[in-house]
Specification:
This protein is an alpha/beta fold. The chain has 11 helices and 12 strands. It folds into 2 domains: 13-150 and 290-344, Rossmann fold; 153-284 and 369-400, 3-Layer(aba) Sandwich (Rossmann fold), CATH 3.40.50.2300. It has a 5-stranded parallel β-sheet with strand order 2-1-3-4-5, with helices on both faces. A 4-stranded parallel β-sheet has the order 7-6-8-9, with helices on both faces. A 3-stranded antiparallel β-sheet has the order 10-11-12. The protein is globular, with a radius of gyration of 20 Å.
Length: 401
């Protein structure tokens, strides 16, 4: 399979990005090839869904500027799942039964993605997941599902590899939200930590989107862990770090399964944790400084369109759509079966998201980076061949910051 790269796009991307509405097509001509996109344009995960849409918009404009799919323009049919699993199911039914799309991209959350897998499998429509990291989304055995991002087991292994080579701490606490995403990351880290010999002194689940986690944090504080591993979305990540400071919960390492700890908003004093985000570690699937060809160009285009530098969520959507485009070109006739088989046979050695090829389960072997917030910016600190900064360990205690 030939390589795909960034294509020049004429016109301002800012004019192309419109974040209102649930169902939008980038091309309305009847000859356009239309595919479905399910993401969270509103609701608790809207920040991530809007990042998806920005990445998709950049990609679809590049693809169409380069001639589209075998001479036809590509159109995206969006469905807003409102950050709810049952809405995502409605989205599949609408996109497949009414709009007759041959391929679906999405959803954002592991919860919504896991909910739609039985429906796409029943209707025999291929699904490419850009961001769902709970590993149970890959445990259904469905031949119709593919995941471009790395999963929770890879997150845990990368974090533990970093810890082993940077101080080798001895005790760990896991703090996770009681959702499919949080529970999967708790399970993955529990198993991986036990295998590595790192002692787990606390595992605390919590209900997402609460305003008060002080009781959870005080229980963790009493155990005095060297490391805390969080699995949280944006609102929770910000609240947890602010309240970690308020409760004077000090750990040598504040680590995380990405997501809420890996967004541009997390660094913001208005929308996130602000100064309380400093020194936190996060897994990351991509950063503008990544060595993959085209990363900096995507960063430039995304910033021009949104006024923000992207975290990996926008890139995952971008890479997912380019991957879909390559499969659509190879499928020719464009039937769901032909598209599924084309996805399975893809071999893209170089992209802005790294190599893309799917194993027999439908999983792309994507590498995981470790970042740390330093001076209000995400810096890659592990692995050594990708690092742009040295990690700061241990984290200064709150009263010394």
């Amino acid at each position: 399979m030939r390589r795909f790269f960034f294509m020049a796009v004429s016109g301002a991307l800012a004019a192309a990005l419109s974040f209102s509405g649930c169902h939008e097509n980038t091309e309305t001509a009847g000859s356009a090839i239309r595919i479905g996109v399910i993401t969270s344009l509103t609701g608790a995960n809207a920040a991530f869904g809007q990042a998806h849409k920005a990445g998709y918009t950049i990609a679809v404009n590049e693809i169409n500027a380069a001639g589209g799919i075998n001479g036809k323009q590509l159109a995206l049919d969006y469905f807003d799942d409102q950050s709810l699993g049952d809405k995502a199911i409605q989205g599949v039914i609408k996109l497949v039964d009414q709009d007759h799309v041959p391929l679906i991209l999405g959803a954002y959350s592991s919860e919504s993605t896991r909910a739609i897998e039985p429906i796409v499998t029943q209707r025999q429509i291929p699904l490419i997941m850009p961001t769902a990291v709970a590993d149970n989304v890959m445990e259904t055995g469905s031949p119709w599902v593919f995941r471009i991002c790395a999963g929770s087991r890879s997150f845990a292994e990368a974090t533990l590899d970093f810890l082993e080579h940077n101080g080798n701490p001895k005790t760990l606490a896991i703090v996770y939200e009681n959702t499919n995403f949080g529970q999967s990351n708790n399970k993955s880290m529990t198993v991986a930590a036990q295998e590595s010999g790192l002692k787990i002194v606390a595992r605390e689940g919590y209900e997402a989107s609460s305003t008060d986690y002080t009781a959870v944090l005080r229980r963790v504080k009493a155990k005095k862990p060297d490391v805390i591993y969080f699995a949280s979305y944006l609102l929770d990540a910000s609240t947890l770090m602010r309240q970690a400071r308020q409760t004077n919960l000090n750990a040598k390492y504040f680590t995380s399964a990405g997501t809420g700890f890996a967004t541009a908003e997390f660094l913001s004093p208005e929308k996130g944790a602000g100064q309380d985000a400093e020194y936190t570690f996060s897994v990351s699937q991509w950063l503008p400084s990544a060595a993959w060809k085209g990363s900096q160009e995507f960063d430039r285009k995304y910033f021009g369109a949104t006024g923000m530098h992207p975290a990996y969520h926008g890139m995952e959507a971008y890479a997912t759509l380019w991957t879909a485009a390559e499969a659509l070109k190879a499928a020719g006739a464009g039937t769901p079966v032909a598209i599924r088989d084309a996805i399975r046979n893809l071999d893209i050695p170089e992209s802005a998201f790294g190599p893309v090829r799917f194993d027999a389960r439908g999983q792309n072997a994507h590498p995981v980076l470790i970042t740390q917030v330093q001076g209000g910016q995400y810096k890659v600190v592990w692995p050594p061949d990708a690092a742009v900064a040295k990690p700061i360990v241990p984290a200064p205690e709150w009263n010394q910051r």
